[in-house]
Design goal:
Helices cover 75% and strands 0% of the residues. By secondary structure, it is an all-alpha fold.
Length: 269
């Protein structure tokens, strides 16, 4: 887990420092390759080479880390804020509300992740917020199902029935007893969803549906590199692909570490 935390910390530091370094001219913008040779191989001047527009691949790949983290953070946060309350209400109240929400979420859950995100991105258009919303819709059912199932099991406990018989309101029961019990496994799902969201965002960019071309994004860079790859221009593909792989690996390490910690804590009780 600590390896994963270190990887994500490095990516976060890069995304935080890149705008500062670019604004002070310490590193080139990387968005525009005016004056740079196109498809230049890695060299001292351009450590990772340049792409078909003469843009510095290294700078664009590093800048893409900030874009990926921003989109994933917004998407997962929105999914949490929507999926968890809906799951609590559905599991606690039951009845018609529960049946309607379960039907809706199960329908969304059965659609393949990339297909659903492609449809949402196509409807919303390109942009950071739109891409985040497209990913958010994909992950809401996962948090809903997790929280709803746990809430349905916990609400039948004797201490909750005693609180209800003493006149406790549903809001008080949910906030006091249910919320803290159902949130224990959420961090594991969160980190694994974040890792998956990086890949889905890359898939959207590869299909040309994620972000505008002017925004540094690994998926769109891989899409542009695909044409030049057969001609021996390998550097435009390997660096953004490797950056995506390492970030997904780091987030997966965190998720696996959290799962082990939670399992050990439960076994000690």
């Amino acid at each position: 887990m600590y390896v994963g935390l270190g990887i994500v910390f490095v990516y976060g530091a890069i995304s935080f420092l890149m705008p500062v370094l670019i604004s002070y001219g310490i590193v080139p913008d990387g968005q525009f390759g005016l004056g740079n040779p196109i498809f230049s191989a890695p060299s001292i001047d351009h450590w990772c080479g340049t792409d078909r527009l003469g843009r510095d691949v290294c700078i664009r790949t590093l800048a893409g880390s900030g874009v990926a983290l921003k989109v994933v953070f917004i998407a997962v946060s929105l999914a949490l804020l929507i999926g968890i309350p809906l799951g609590l209400l559905s599991g606690y109240i039951g009845g018609l509300l529960d049946r309607v929400l379960v039907l809706l979420m199960d329908t969304l859950y059965t659609i393949p992740v990339l297909l659903l995100s492609v449809v949402m991105a196509f409807l919303l258009g390109k942009g950071i917020l739109n891409a985040a919303i497209a990913l958010c819709v994909v992950y809401i059912p996962q948090y809903f199902r997790l929280v709803r199932n746990q809430t349905s099991q916990i609400k039948s406990e004797l201490y909750i029935e005693a609180a209800i018989s003493m006149g406790a309101s549903p809001f008080w029961v949910i906030r006091k007893y249910l919320l803290k019990n159902v949130l224990t496994s959420v961090p594991v799902v969160l980190t694994l969803n974040a890792a998956d969201a990086v890949l889905v965002l890359g898939g959207l960019g590869f299909l040309g549906l994620g972000l505008p071309e002017t925004v540094p994004e690994w998926g769109s860079d891989l899409n542009m590199a695909l044409v030049a790859l057969p001609t021996g221009v390998w550097w435009t593909a390997i660096y953004p692909g490797f950056a995506m792989f390492v970030l997904v690996l780091g987030l997966s390490f965190i998720g696996e570490g959290l799962e082990n910690l939670i399992s050990e804590s439960v076994s000690e009780l």
